[in-house]
Amino acid sequence: MSFTELGLQPNLATRLINLGYIRPTPAHNKVIPDILHGANLLIGSPVGAGFAESAMISIINLSVTQANSNQVHIILSASDDHKLIYEQQLQLLMGNQIPIALMTNIESFVPPTTQASIWISTPQEFLNYLQESSTNQEISYTLLLNETDEMIARGAKPALLAVSEYISKQCQVIICTSKITKSIKTISRSLQHRPKWYRWDSNNQKPENTAHQAWPVPKTLKSQLLLKLSSKLHNAKAILLVRDEQFATKIARRIRTRKLRAAAVMVGNELEIFRRFESNDITLLILADGLKKSIPLEGVTHIIHYDLPDKPQGYLDITNKMPGAIHMSIITPSDEESLIEIEDIMQRPLSRNTLTNFDYKEKVSKSAHANTTRKKKRRPKRRRKKQTKTEWDPEVPRTWGDRNAMRANPDKTPLEDWSPSPLPSIWSDKNPNKHTKTVSRKKRSVRRYKKHRRNRNGNKSSRSKQQ
Fold first, then answer.
1. pTM of the predicted model, to two decimals?
2. Which residues pair with 223 in a beta bridge?
3. Which residue, 257, 262, 381, 409, could crosslink 284 as a Cys pair with Cβ 3.0–4.6 Å?
């Protein structure tokens, strides 16, 4: 089945083919026809499986075909940073062939005209517009809630529930989320009317349904991005593929600081590490030699490619071994050519993803030699603590300060039966170390003197004999 047979406009179908979609994926075949026919959908799938992308393609097609109607197409995002990301994704899907106006400021919203338009907003901004607008009864909305679980995590659930008071049940609402939780079901009941459910099954053994994610990053920030992505793996069982065994142990220590149970496989500890990984005592396994047959793969949800294989077929072999896992690739500009070769073999592009809470700017040092030479920092001198002089108190029994006495609850002599006796020398002398230092110095000097007054045979010699 081709894209035109799914119901897409010829210009949009041609654009998708130019992007690298040789044929529609299973996600396209399921989602696009239902959205074009006006159905409400509740989609639970991770990013990269193609379901959210199919919903965006459908919104673009609806905006073109319904340009002369009172239908308004709005995409709700989790934050302002997500708005910019969705705008870039829509521009990539449309190209220059499809004239659609993308609006990110809903405050300047005007009633629909003959020009096709898509509005990108956040739940709170959209709710504020509905509360202030008086033309809601005349307008029908098509809402796409992308990454709804991220919206809920950022506190947008009350705003999403309040939106249902201003729009009718006849509006088309598509909800995309990575997991269908109780909060997602509550929002679906308030906004949707008899929605169709689509779930991405992680146990699906079909490689064409595999979720692929590419995370571009500068080479100098590659490990930092991996540590940032590790926050998404607390409830997952993952395998990290690297090339260097020494780097595997290093990154394992850094990931453990993020409270993840990670371990690197080394020579000699394979059986022990595999046993702990199979019993879920370790949730992140770091490999430097690729996926072997002896590795327990049951229950693995994520495969992270820190370094892409040398040949594209190596990536496909790993995908065929674990088609039910989410494959995440951390790529640098030098890996872009290898990724394009992988896309050519798979006959579809891979989604590029960005983190909104990560700084992708490389830190450039002022000094040209800052990266090669580092100045040694002088350690601050430790200040000696001032010793407090202890004076003897006749009201305190001697056994309380005796060094040979038991420290835990010593027997205390009653004050009535106790009489002072000669004090210990350590208490009677206010400078106890003064005498000992002079004695030790004298002894050392005498030793040196005697050492030089011996003859070749080691016997003592006197001045008279030497003379």
1. 0.72
2. none
3. 262
